[in-house]
Amino acid sequence: MKNFVWGILLISIIIGCKMKENADLIIVNSKAYTVDSLFSVQTAIAVRDGKIMETGSDEDILGKYKSDNVIDLAGFPLYPGFNDAHCHITGLGMGLGRVDLRGATSYKEVLERLVKRHKESSPSYLEGDGWNQTLWEEGDDFPDNKELSRLFPDIPVILYRIDYHAVIVNDAAIRALGIYPGDKSIPDGEAIMQNGTFKGVFLENTAERFRQVLPVPDKNEYSRLLLAAQQECFRNGLTSISHAGEDAEVIEVMEELNASGELKLRTDIWLTPNQATLSKYSQPFSRGRIRIGTIKLFADGALGSRGALMIEPYSDMPQTKGIPVIGANEFDSLCRWAAEREFQVAIHCIGDAANRFALDTYAKYLDEGNDLRWRIEHAQIIAPGDLEKFGKYRIVPSIQPTHATSDMLWADERIGDRLRNAYMYKELLDQLGWIPSGTDFPVEQVNPLYTFFAAVSRRNLDMVPQGGFQMENALSREEALRSMTIWAAKASFEEALKGSLEPGKYADFVVLDKDIMTLDEDSIPAVKVLKTFVNGELVYSN
Ligand SMILES: [Zn+2]
Fold first, then answer.
1. 389: helix, strand or coil
2. E strands within 170-289?
3. pLDDT for 214-247, tens place per residue?
4. Cα torsion angle, 85, 90, 96, 102, sign
5. Quick check: 107 pLDDT over 80?
6. Is the separation of the CB atoms in 53 and 503 below 8 Å?
7. Which residue, 456, 404, 400, 396, is CA-closest to 429?
8. How deeply is 98 buried, as exposed, middle or buried, from its count of CB atoms within 10 A (0-12, 13-18, 19+)?
9. What is the CA(81)–ligand 1 centre distance, in A?
10. pTM of the predicted model as reported, rounded to 2 decimal places
11. How far is the centre of ligand 1, averaged over its atoms, from the C-alpha of 540 (Å)?
12. What is the helix (H) or strand (E) element at residue 108, kind and residue range?
């Protein structure tokens, strides 16, 4: 009898070994937050053909699967790949090409950084950003552009101040724009003068005009920018994004990168509605790493510049209520276009009047209990009584937690007591029971851990204010993690494909050097990405 039992056992071990399934990749010895419905934690994952076969304990997974590629993570934490639910990848790419002038301690150093870039790549123009003359040893007067024009006599050079409200430009840039001293097109005070000539420093609208002198990138340039931005995403642990508005020309480049396999970042591209996009993309689709099924609209502008549309006037400028960006008829007809084609609508709304306008217009097209997932981007200031409309019409509020911590120190000047109706992330979450989050990069930094930190701690990176800003609207760590993984996926109808580590979903995950679910809060912003995997492929390793 004893021999018989041993025999059976031996046979089952042999069968067991033979029956081990092949995996392309096995991860063991990790602390893997699956972000499934139970928020369960496992140690091992088996991957094949870009998808998760199974998660479980090391014993389970190594008992059932074998692979030539087994990675022991030595206990490091692993999460579903992060998904930025609202950002601008093209803008990120364009910014990456600029010479970074942040932290320069003299104007001389600014010029040296420009010369270095020029030697490396001999570009047809130079753009830089981040200079701050208050840090310069020459003193905090604006410099003149003589040396800049001497160093770069032929190509336009445009250098944005750290707040983007001023530029230093060379004479070639001024010539290209075609302005001259005394030019009536320059509002008072926007050109700094020196002995009757331009000093080379311009402010506000005139500063903004200099962008016109730069060449519009061609297709090759766009693909170079997009791939650089993609790598920046991987470096930050992002494996998916929603790209909030694009024209047909750039979407075409993205489609080419998708077809060639170079686009690896899962990219949900929203259409900027115009003749070209709406005629070309009249049906939602997913192909490879691209999904198209959303149009992007704007109801108003930004709060900082008093462009946000308010029901009552601004507290610090009682003659204005902001600037409407879309008319009711146009908004209505685009909603109809979307409803007829099963597209999502996503509309930028900052002010309480903008949010009310969007909620009430959406309500005409959305039945109670619908699952069309029309979105309001930012959903920043919501008048009392309007909040419930999100729940009633199943409208998705799409939030950027770092906007709260960027704006909180000055927003009360603009809106006074109405600040208590702003950045209400927890109350918005409670409307549907889920909420997607993002950064709106390059407006904010790419790093999704800053989103996580801002959502949870409601403080900026200087750890201000103590105790956090309007903490009743903080998210829990689990909610914050869900908002940047499974809920972000849900906001683009992709929750069955990604956003959690479950069998059949894409093997998209990120390994961090510390566990953001248990780490002391103040240390979260310094957490580093160690590895990023998309479709089971290692796309970034630190
Ligand atoms: Zn945006």
1. helix
2. 191-194, 197-203, 238-246, 266-271, 285-287
3. 988 899 989 999 999 999 999 999 999 999 999 9
4. negative
5. yes
6. yes
7. 396
8. middle
9. 21
10. 0.87
11. 26
12. helix 107-121
